[in-house]
Design a protein that fits this description.
The structure is a single chain. The protein is of the alpha+beta class. The chain has three domains: 128 residues, Rossmann fold (3-Layer(aba) Sandwich), CATH 3.40.50.20; 111 residues, D-amino Acid Aminotransferase, Chain A, domain 1 (2-Layer Sandwich), CATH 3.30.470; 62 residues, Dna Ligase, domain 1. The protein has 13 helices and 13 strands. The longest helix has 17 residues.
Length: 353
């Protein structure tokens, strides 16, 4: 098949989306597909042949990329763009996608998980991987997702949706619970997330969050083990425990760096049968309640009483070879390359239906 793997983009998760997309592209090429990597934001700026010929490019446009310890400099990405457009869609992105049999969404964050690219692909009649526009948009908005999941009986920490302004930072710093968690409603990769322990830390956290947007969710802090549960084709895979480096939270660095800076990921997690069953059941319930399709990954805190507290769900979770879903799939005997192809084939079945 001819497959366009979209990655990159102009979100704060750009680096992760570059590694996901190029990794998936190489995997699909190893499975015999004519897969090519296309940066959603830059497009085919460096390609001068016909669009049909692009699928014959011997390396699929897969360059060397890595996840840095710092967030991407999006102003520098804008400045480096040669294609004259104020939009977020790069040169010939829609046109090359229209020629594909399927588009694999290796994107994260805005323009990828918020339903926008899904809506575009539906308008031009091209199948794509993962959930549809509405489910993607609702799941990415943490406040909207919590409202729906609470109505389905999913346990979630006490929370409040707020809007930050210069005038109300001090008021919010006095009102919101500490210790707690404050999160931009549409963030990901632990960017735009703060875990203040004191009122002063909360005040400074709110000031930092403004750079990512004005709407955010404030939650009470739940103490316990951090776990995540992937779902593939409606069935939960092995829960994974995440153990951040001592003295650190599961932030952007801990999530993507190896060695002393990186978190430990235990797969399968050391759980009792009852805990394992509860986490799997809840992940499947989240996937179904939000009408998600093909795959997702939801995050939890398992407290000392054995209760699984839902934190958030990812509709396009990381798909590098070292990401969490590939690790859980490996427990089921599925290789990384097989997983990438399974996501494509399952997505085609969904869209044909």
């Amino acid at each position: 098949m001819k497959i366009v793997v979209l990655g990159g983009g102009i979100s704060t998760e750009r680096h992760v989306a570059l590694v996901t997309a190029t990794s998936v592209c190489r995997a699909l090429r190893r499975r015999g597909h004519k897969a090519i990597f296309v940066d959603l934001f830059l497009g085919l700026e460096n390609w001068h042949g016909s669009l049909e010929e692009a699928f014959e490019e011997p390396y699929g446009f897969c360059g060397q990329v890595a996840i840095e310890t710092e967030e991407p400099d999006l102003k520098a990405v804008w400045a480096a763009r040669r294609y004259p457009s104020k939009g977020h869609l790069g040169k010939n992105v829609a046109e090359i996608c229209a020629l594909a049999d399927c588009v694999f969404l290796g994107l994260h964050g805005i323009d990828g998980e918020d339903g926008k690219i899904q809506a575009l692909l539906e308008l031009i009649g091209v199948p794509y991987t993962g959930s549809g526009p509405l489910a993607s948009a609702v799941a990415m908005d943490k406040a909207m997702a919590k409202r729906i999941l609470e109505s389905h009986g999913v346990l979630t920490p006490a929370w409040r949706e707020c809007v930050i302004t210069e005038e109300n930072v001090e008021q919010l710093a006095q009102e919101l619970p500490v210790p707690g968690a404050v999160k931009i409603v549409n963030g990901g990769s632990s960017i735009g997330v703060e875990l203040p322990e004191t009122r002063e830390e909360l005040r400074e956290a709110l000031k930092r969050l403004v750079r990512y947007g004005s709407r955010f969710v404030a939650e009470e802090k739940i103490y316990g083990r951090e776990l995540t549960v992937p779902v593939l084709n409606g069935k939960a895979l092995s829960p994974i425990e995440i153990v951040p480096p001592e003295g650190m939270g599961f932030d952007y660095v801990a999530k993507y760096q190896s060695g002393a800076l990186g978190a430990s990921e235990i797969c399968p997690a050391d759980l009792t049968e009852e805990e394992d069953r509860l986490l799997r059941k809840t992940a499947e319930q989240v996937h179904s309640a939000l009408n998600l399709q093909v795959y997702s990954r939801s995050d939890y805190i398992l407290d000392a009483a054995g209760r699984a507290w839902f934190l958030e769900v990812n509709t396009l979770p990381g798909m590098t070879p070292n990401s969490l879903i590939p690790k859980a799939a490996a427990v089921e005997g599925m290789s990384y390359d097989e997983l990438c192809e399974e996501i494509v084939m399952s997505s085609l079945k969904v869209h044909r239906a």
